[in-house]
Amino acid sequence: MNITVIGAGAMGSLFGALLAEAGETVTLLDIRRDHVDAVNANGLSIEKAGTRRIVRVQATTDPVRIGPVDLSIVFVKSTHTAVAAETAARLSGKTGLVLTLQNGMENADTLAETLAPSHVIAGTTSHGATFLGPGAIRHAGSGDTVIGPWAAAGMTGADRVAEVFRRADITTRVVADVRSVLWAKLFINVGINAITALTGINNGQLLDLKRTRQLSREAVEEAMAVAGAQGIAIDQDPVEKVFQVATATSPNRSSMGQDVDNRRLTEIAAINGFIVRMAEAAGVPVPVNRTLAALVETLQAHY
Asked: For residues 194 and 254, is the Cβ–Cβ distance under 8 A?
């Protein structure tokens, strides 16, 4: 399959490399010239569990240099999804598929405004990655990837993508109701990202103090109340899942934490900010999420 990864940060580079190692034709598309040049010159360096390997994969900053593709995987920050949708539309033509594995909500909706909804696939992944510098990432953790069609007519496309991912040893399952899956991932992001970004702690340190665990719990419970008002089915215990993920990814900095560390715009509007907007429409009080969102927005406004 001919694949382009739009947004070759830590996660985009990781997925691109795994697919390239499996024999797929992959091009990483990113705005950072230093990263693209390093990948083209020396390959992509991937550190994992104390070992390092080099993966040869093409990279470019110019979408015009990429021919028609069968699949575009979108990994840009949510603030750039609309621009990525335009790029994906040019590359995919009338038949190509577009998959979003981005954090936050409303990314698939944004893609479907530009692309045929039946060609849009959404999902989440439990893989973790850290950007170490131009041409180098750390594969910080592995886990399941769950995808599904944004429109019912897209199930065949989702199955095709899952087959390609499995050949690359990316454990993937396909679900019909991907929206509930996105909400489940949102609960995790709500419970971890803003708190770690504001405090400078790693994911596992969120569990060190009772007051921090309680803050996370309250943020997630507010999000659950909003989901309930939206008629979203909630499986298992989202708070316990947040704590499990924090434990499993203990040494990691959340993606929002990495953004703050590098003085980049965060995805706060698509995570806690999304909860605030949905809560206003539903008349549900969300003081913790409102405060977390306001603090992160204030922090990034004063970099």
From this structure: no
**Digit-coded pLDDT (tens) for 120-178:** 999 999 898 889 999 999 998 888 999 999 999 999 999 999 999 999 999 999 999 99
The whole-angstrom separation of Cα 12 and Cα 232 is 29
Q: Which tokens belong to 203? A: 């994911």
Report, at the CATH architecture level, how domain 2-176 is classified: 3-Layer(aba) Sandwich (3.40)
Closest CA relative to residue 24, chosen from 165, 137, 183, 189:
165
Q: Rounded CA gap, 100 and 7, in Å?
A: 11
- For the chain, give every domain's residue range: 2-176, 180-301
Nearest to 60 by CA among 44, 37, 81: 37
User: Tokens 């298992």 map to which residue?
Assistant: 236
CATH 1.10.1040.10 fits domain 180-301:
yes
Residue at token pair 């899952």: 162
The string of DSSP letters for 126-193 reads: --EEEEEETTEEEEEE---EEEEESSGGGHHHHHHHHHHHHHTT--EEE-S-HHHHHHHHHHHHHHHH
Encode pLDDT of 9-48 as tens digits.
Answer: 999 999 999 999 999 999 999 999 999 999 999 999 999 9
Given the residues 77, 185, 210, 241, the one annotated as active site: 185
pLDDT one-digit tens code per residue, 183-207:
999 999 999 999 999 999 999 999 9
Q: What are phi and psi of 175, to 5 degrees?
A: -125, 155
Burial class (CB in 10 A: 0-12, 13-18, 19+), 196: buried
Active site residue 185: yes
| 142 class by beta-carbon count within 10 Å (0-12 exposed, 13-18 middle, 19+ buried) | middle
Alpha carbon distance 60, 66 (integer Å): 8
